[in-house]
Amino acid sequence: MAQAAGGDWLRFLCALATAIAWGIGDGLVAQAAISRLLYSMARDKMMPGFLAKVHPRYQTPYMSTLLVAVLAITMGALIQMDKLTSMVNFGALTGFLFLHLSVFVHYVIRQKKTDAASLLKYLVAPACGFAIIFYVWISLQSEAKILGLIWLAVGFVYAAFKTRFFTEKPPVFQSLGH
After folding, report:
1. pLDDT, position 177
2. What is the pTM of this model?
3. What is the mean pLDDT of residues 152-162?
4. Burial of 10 by CB count in 10 Å (0-12 exposed, 13-18 middle, 19+ buried)?
5. Which residue has the higher pLDDT, 45 or 106?
6. C-alpha distances out from residue 123 to 109, 118, 134, Å
7. How many Cβ atoms from other residues are within 10 Å of residue 125's Cβ?
């Protein structure tokens, strides 16, 4: 529409303004969410303790926020946008694949909910969601999948180390009695 109304310069200006507006808003929300996730994991002794530091005046997780900011700036400056987008999509889609799988494992395998209604909710629906997400996942760039799978393996090894190869519960679960 901007192209038709004002030509190339207006189209460029509108695209730039939209990218800045959405980029800043989405970036701030993502940075806040990730820094608080790191803070929570550090507080629960699953990440290094310095990430759980809270600013004395603002009561925000400032060390994890600074780490996320430095990583975001560095990656944004060094990695092409399409590769970076594919890497972010790898993480989100992989998380949703595990989510669909965990619904099946929790309800059908562990809780043995195998009546028709339960199988529809806890087997068929998650299997459909898994299939759709997997179809999108396989179309991601190869580099993103390789790097993402390496990062996933590093996380698995770290979790195995923190739980003595999954023989101990994470500290937060021990204190809750789960």
Report:
1. 58
2. 0.73
3. 92
4. middle
5. 106
6. 10, 8, 16
7. 14
